Automatic annotation (TrEMBL):
Residues 647-785 form the DUF7035 domain. Residues 1062-1287 form the ComC supersandwich domain. The chain crosses the membrane at residues 5-24, 1319-1342. Keywords: Membrane, Transmembrane, Transmembrane helix. Pfam families: ComC_SSD, DUF7034, DUF7035, DUF7949. This is EGF-like domain-containing protein. Residues 794-918 form the DUF7034 domain. Residues 1017-1050 form the DUF7949 domain. InterPro entries: ComC_SSD, DUF7034, DUF7035, DUF7949. Residues 1001-1020 are annotated as: Disordered.
């Protein structure tokens, strides 16, 4: 790489006057690492801070500083703060010069330095480092919109598409091109309505010199000349007056690219290019859907669907439908009242529904979505009087309130004292505590103003509650917060230049991009301080991505998977954030991949549901601190690949709906709805149905439904019922909402009148939404033949707060911040309701803060009812105001008349004011405690140095970090719930209970301890002595290069096997030397015999021998040059179902670590590994299992009469993770390691192995046996992953018990003696668990040549086996 790190400023300063100045460069490191932006020159921007020793020497950059570079004056852009100033200037550097003299004239004082830089043009032509890429379809959520390709270019600096270069592409395409790193450029495209024929695709990059480099990429637009079948179906809302209407177009097509369909309409507001969503099928035979929601137009519309043919765009016509809208939120009156504490906005709404309210007081803003019953002071059906309470300080400022999107409630000035001063940033300090935690301290002042309301410092917000006691006031103080970036709220944004925003209580805002010292606002310690592109190219690089299961068949079952992430520049304590952009159930949030000590990588477990649409490039985004990596830049081997024969993204549908008759008698009755729910793909999982009424439209009855064990998940009827009490009020009950989810995490949603309907909603009533007759069944009338005339809401007749003194909201004790509100609700015409609908107390603080607390009925239902609200005031709530206010809403009578009172209403006759104060005690306050193993982090306020912390009965002395956090390390392990308290005078802090599982617990790996005399290890000395291994619980733990059960064997290097192109058997010769110096020839044979279906008692149901294979050399597909790979495929048929068997044979030239079934496996040099994949098998019974049979053999024709052979088998480790089969002849062995795990139905499962010693044919020169790998009954697939390596033994076979040392055709003569050491041999490594594959591993050892007779005998034995 060329010298790309020299774009920084080195200043050699000479201070020449009494008023000293010094300069410091504060540019972002590597931010000038760009190619030339002009003809032969670079324009670099530098930032410096000029600091004066004397505060009496004021200056500012524009007027007091001149910058001269190589005798050329430079313009200066700047900001000035006190005695320090931030200055930025541009240097135009030519290609022929890499050093310039710089002079700063600061108020007549000359400071001289030198700038080093490296300026170069873009290389020409720009070259691809890899073959031209291909476009692949990118799924986002459920949509198919863009095709993506990534160019890997020969660049060493950022190619700046915003300022440096221009790019072009053919007309008819719509593309976005961006740099991902220095070398990788992403091209993301779709086609436009101007596309009229198949246009080849290319990208041209033009540099500032006008030189053009063109890259041809095979186009994703390949229109089909042939005719193809499609059907077009439209579903849309009936002609009801809804505030929003839905329109769905379904296209079913075969043999045509998905993304070449689209809808575009200027009838939609705004005009929109509508991309399809996947519904079902596969890439070659699919159903897609176009959803549209109409909100702002009233007319007849037609939405055609376009698709691209070879020469023109054709369209599929669709029926017209009416978008006439109605029943929208309206206002009939509006007013505002205020007193010395609050301002209350009052409005009368028609068609009222919960809506978002935008509130602004100067620069203080909030979006409020307080649910019902907040604000409702009275209502009649869906007409409601709404009161919104605010507590703006008494300063002259504009108060604004509006519902979304544009219904303005109020826009008026709040009268009061004028505060025209903006708050000031005094200082900002970070203390890095760990790689993921830090302490932030901010000094801020508003001395002549209203005081500090909030301080935003990316990514946290400090409020008045974070003021440090004893460190100033709300007008001029020190604020502090402890940040643990493992908390979900602190997933970092990617911005590198977030300014500090300080707002005072009068709504004035100050924005600071630079500190008072002239430095750019620093980023939190976890951030990298380098330029982002440099960091992503040179520091945080993705080194490896892998999965427990890849190339996943989701046709039948889902997949429990793990992603393994290896990145440079990361630490163990900081997570990698993983975002899955298309997988159902995972797209709604980000996920944390934490460090896994076992694998030395970050790992994340995740689940993919069944029947997800095929995708060879599942889009994934990785965030680490302030860097980002997209999966589009990864190699093909790192891509997550999934496929389904017939995907199902269609959420559950209601195919039939019935309702019970109306209730028409005074005795009441039962009303019900029955829904037939169909989901023929993944099956219905669960749902929620809510029922409301015309008198009580905002407190629905909630019903949850899910299939019982005896119900059909694919189609079943579900009934929800509601009891109607006698003497009921006449009204209409209706379905308020329906939400249904299937086992693929696809959700359908219905809302009454389409209110509050999500933009991506998929209706569960597609077949019914246009059928007025069926939709009428959503409503049931109830008439108990009684006329009620009471339309007056109940009232509050008594109200009190159990309070004698002001509340110190900074008290550490919850009891000091606890308030009980008591009130009585009375009604003259009906009883007050105490079930279904209860009132709430609301606690108000400045400016727009609201907390909600439920009321509890203290008396029985009647014309008067006593209620109480129990209010726990949060620490610091309301600061720096002098009071809190209470309102009460939601009290209801049995005729569903609703009442509510704002604080201003309650102050007429009652006192809803809670006076508050601050810092009346100096006692520490513990906010939260986090336990990480034996480390305890205590976060709170007013901590001292040093502090005494009581953890249960243990006492610890520890100084706090700042006044906010105390960290105790190496504490006594906590095994039960334990109290944590800080000792203080005159009283201790509050107590917080910590539980053993309250934080992530580290995996405790016990120190190895020698085995007791009851668990002896093999060998004399055991395990070959301390230099070879150690005996742990009866098992030898070997030290490299030693292997085997007794650590007396070493791996030997053998040539790559001779590949058989007709079957996956290994039949290979290689030469080696015995300990006595004699050269011999060894022969190895690995053979896959058959697949058996077994009954539970072991009886063979049917055996499927493997006869014909299709061979492919797949070495070129391997990204790892250390591996040679060969693939064999065959199939068998059982019960008329074809089962595919794939054997992937890999030869490892050098040692390598792999992961299979979430276990690390060491592959020795010359290891042969088999991966076996078996597709769906049609079992004859759900109780049956499969067994994969392998054959293993060794032979030697040595003339030496002392030649011996021996077989051994058993468990390898204490965890019962794997077992071995060892075949040894003299001092060479075949050692087979069989993992007792497999990947069955896309998840890791336990399996077992059977070693058939009774069926073996062994003599002194040959050892042979059969192995059966037992696979449980499965639905979709099974995968195994065994490997084989050659070892040489220190202990010959003749020294082992049960060895055969006499030639015998029938293997009847055995030499019996005690073993002096355990096996050493050839390692047949991990036969991965969970596969329906049998690997026969047979190694033949020959001193001279192959015995033809023996081969024939083995062939006969294989035929007769079983």
């Amino acid at each position: 790489m060329q010298e790309m790190i020299i774009n920084y400023l080195i200043l050699i300063l000479f201070i020449t006057c009494a008023n000293g100045y010094f300069l410091m460069e504060t540019s972002i490191t590597y931010s000038n690492n760009r190619y030339a932006t002009l003809n032969g020159s670079c324009v670099n921007n530098y930032i410096v801070t000029i600091v004066s020793d004397s505060p009496d020497a004021p200056f500012d950059c524009p007027n007091g500083v001149t910058v001269i570079i190589d005798n050329n004056g430079q313009s200066v852009k700047s900001n000035a703060y006190g005695s320090q100033a931030y200055c930025s200037f541009d240097l135009t550097a030519t290609l022929s010069i890499n050093e310039s003299l710089i002079q700063f004239n600061v108020n007549g004082e000359l400071l001289i330095g030198v700038i080093n830089y490296y300026c170069e043009n873009l290389p020409y032509p720009i070259q691809l480092l890899e073959p031209p890429p291909s476009f692949h379809l990118t799924q986002s959520g459920n949509q198919m919109e863009f095709y993506t390709a990534v160019l890997n270019l020969n660049l060493t600096k950022l190619i700046d598409f915003f300022n440096l270069v221009q790019y072009a592409y053919p007309i008819g395409y719509n593309c976005m091109i961006q740099a991902l790193t220095y070398t990788k450029v992403e091209v993301k495209c779709k086609f436009e309505s101007t596309m009229s024929s198949h246009i080849p695709f290319w990208v041209e990059i033009s540099d500032p010199l006008g030189r053009v480099t063109k890259f041809d990429i095979p186009s994703f637009v390949v229109p089909n000349n042939n005719s193809f079948d499609f059907t077009n179906t439209a579903y849309f809302d009936a002609d009801y007056n809804y505030p929003l209407k839905q329109y769905y177009t379904f296209i079913k097509a075969a043999g045509y690219p998905i993304a070449l369909f689209y809808q575009y309409t200027d009838q939609y507001d705004p005009e929109e290019y509508i991309v399809p969503q996947i519904v079902s099928g596969s890439p070659n035979n699919f159903t897609i859907m176009f959803p549209i929601q109409f909100k702002n137009i009233d007319q007849m519309v037609n939405i055609p669907t376009y698709y691209l043919r070879p020469t023109i765009l054709e369209l599929i016509t669709a029926p017209y439908f009416s978008t006439v809208l109605g029943d929208q939120l309206g206002i009939t009156s509006m007013s505002i009242t205020n007193d010395d504490k609050a301002w209350v906005i009052t409005g009368t709404f028609t068609n009222y529904d919960e809506c978002q309210v935008e509130l602004k007081y100067g620069k203080i803003s909030v979006s409020s979505t307080e649910p019902y019953p907040y604000g409702i002071s009275s209502k009649s059906g869906e007409t409601a009087q709404y009161k919104f309470t605010t507590m703006p300080p008494q300063y002259l400022q504009n108060l604004y309130a509006a519902t979304q999107p544009d219904l303005i409630l109020i826009n008026t000035a709040v009268s009061g004292t004028t505060d025209a001063t903006v708050p000031e940033l005094q200082f900002l300090n970070y203390i890095a505590i760990s790689d993921y935690t830090y302490l932030l301290t901010v000094g801020a002042s508003d001395v002549l103003g209203s005081g500090i309301f909030s301080i935003y410092v990316n990514p946290v917000t400090l409020t008045a509650a974070h003021l440090l006691n004893g460190n100033g006031t709300f007008q001029d103080g020190k604020f502090e917060i402890y940040v643990d970036t493992r908390d979900p709220d602190y997933i970092f944004t990617l911005s590198k230049s977030e300014p500090v925003r300080i707002i005072d209580f009068a709504g004035n805002e100050a924005i600071y991009k630079y500190t008072v010292y002239g430095l750019p606002v620093p980023q939190p310690p976890p951030y990298f301080t380098f330029d982002n592109y440099y960091t992503q190219t040179e520091v945080v690089k993705v080194m490896e991505i892998s999965y427990t299961v890849n190339n996943i068949d989701l046709s039948i079952v889902g997949c429990q998977n793990t992603i393994f992430i290896k990145m440079s520049g990361t630490t163990k304590d900081f997570p990698v954030i993983v975002v899955f952009e298309s997988l159902p159930g995972l797209t709604e949030k980000s996920h944390r991949a934490n460090w896994n000590e076992k694998f030395q990588m970050h790992t994340l477990d995740f689940y993919i549901p069944p029947m997800v649409f095929t995708d060879n490039y599942v889009p994934i985004v990785l965030y680490y601190k302030n860097t980002v990596h997209y999966s589009s830049e990864f190699t093909d081997a790192w891509q997550l690949k999934i496929y389904s024969l017939n995907a199902d993204h269609m959420p559950p549908q209601i195919v039939d709906m019935k309702s019970s008759p109306s209730v028409t008698t005074a005795q009441g009755g039962v009303i019900s709805w029955t829904f037939k729910i169909s989901d023929p793909g993944t099956g219905f999982s669960n749902g929620t149905i809510k029922v409301a009424s015309t008198l009580d439209p905002y407190v629905p009855y909630v019903f949850t439904i899910s299939p019982l064990t005896n119900q059909d998940i694919y189609e079943e009827s579900y009934t929800v019922s509601l009891i109607i009490s006698p003497s009921c009020a006449s009204q209409t009950y209706y379905i308020y909402s329906i939400e249904l989810m299937d086992n693929g995490f696809h959700t359908s949603t219905f809302h009454y009148k389409n209110r509050q309907l999500p933009s991506n909603a998929f209706s569960p009533l597609l077949n019914l939404i246009g059928n007025l007759t069926v939709l009428d069944t959503l409503s049931i009338n109830v008439n108990c033949q009684i006329a009620y005339t009471d339309v007056t809401p109940p009232t509050i007749s008594q109200f009190s707060v159990n309070l004698t003194n002001p509340i110190d909201v900074t008290s550490p004790f919850d009891i000091d911040r606890y308030v009980t509100v008591s009130f009585t609700v009375a009604d003259t015409g009906s009883e007050v309701m105490i079930s279904h609908s209860l009132p709430y107390c609301y606690l108000h603080a400045g400016v727009f803060d609201i907390l909600k607390f439920p009321a509890n009925a203290k008396t029985e239902q009647g014309v008067t009812v006593d209620f109480e609200c129990y209010i726990q005031i949060p620490y610091g709530y309301g600061a720096p105001g002098d009071s809190l206010l209470i309102s009460v809403f939601g009290y209801t009578d049995t005729n569903y008349n609703v009442g509510g009172m704002s604080p201003i209403d309650l102050r007429v006759g009652f006192n809803p004011v809670i006076p508050i104060e601050y810092f009346t005690v100096e006692t520490p306050y513990i906010e939260k405690v986090r336990l990480d193993g034996t480390s305890l982090t205590i976060v709170g306020r007013r901590f001292s140095k040093p502090s005494t912390v009581l953890v249960g009965t243990q006492s610890y002395q520890q100084s706090s970090i700042g006044a906010t956090v105390i960290i105790l390390n190496n504490i006594t392990p906590i095994v039960t719930a334990t109290n944590v308290t800080i000792q203080s005078s005159p009283s201790n802090s509050n107590t917080v209970v910590i539980k053993p599982n309250s934080g992530p617990q580290p995996t405790i790996i016990p120190s190895p301890t020698p085995s007791s005399t009851n668990t002896q290890c093999p060998g004399t000395p055991s395990c070959g002595g301390s230099s070879n291994g150690q005996c742990i619980n009866g098992k030898c733990q070997c030290v490299k290069p030693w292997f085997g059960l007794d650590c007396l064997s070493q791996n030997i290097i053998v040539p790559a096997p001779t590949i058989n192109t007709t079957n996956p058997d290994i039949d290979n010769n290689f030469n080696t030397t015995l300990p006595d110096g004699e050269s011999i020839t060894l022969k190895s044979l690995i053979s896959i015999v058959s697949l058996k279906e077994l009954k539970p008692d072991g009886t063979i149901v049917i055996e499927h021998p493997f006869t014909q294979w299709v061979y492919t050399n797949t070495t070129s597909l391997q990204s790892n040059s250390n591996i040679q790979e060969f693939t064999y495929k065959t199939n068998i048929t059982n019960n008329n179902v074809l089962t595919g068997v794939t054997i992937t044979l890999q030869f490892f030239k050098q040692p390598e670590t792999i992961i299979f079934a979430n276990e690390k496996l060491e592959m020795l040099a010359s290891t042969i590994k088999y991966r076996m994949d078996i597709s769906k098998y049609q079992f004859s019974s759900a109780l049956n299992t499969l067994q994969l049979v392998m054959s293993v053999a060794l032979e030697s024709e040595s003339p030496n009469e002392s030649t011996c052979s021996v077989q051994e088998s058993g468990d390898i480790d204490n965890e019962n993770f794997s077992e071995f089969v060892k075949l040894q002849v003299d001092t060479h062995s075949l050692y087979g390691r069989f993992i007792k795990r497999g990947i069955i139905d896309n998840r890791i499962q336990q399996i077992s192995n059977t070693i058939y010693t009774n069926n073996s044919t062994s003599i002194n020169t040959m050892s042979q046996t059969y192995i059966g790998i037992n696979i449980p009954n499965y639905k979709s697939s099974a995968t195994l992953d065994p490997d084989f390596s050659v070892l040489i033994d220190t202990t010959p076979a003749s020294d082992k018990s049960n060895s055969i040392c006499t030639k015998s055709e029938d293997s009847s003569s055995y030499k019996s003696k005690l073993s002096k050491s355990q096996l050493a041999g050839i390692i047949i490594g991990s036969i991965g668990f969970a596969s329906v594959v049998v690997i026969s591993v047979i190694y033949y050892i020959y001193k001279t040549k192959q015995s033809k007779a023996l081969v024939e005998k083995m062939g006969n034995k294989l035929k007769n086996f079983g």
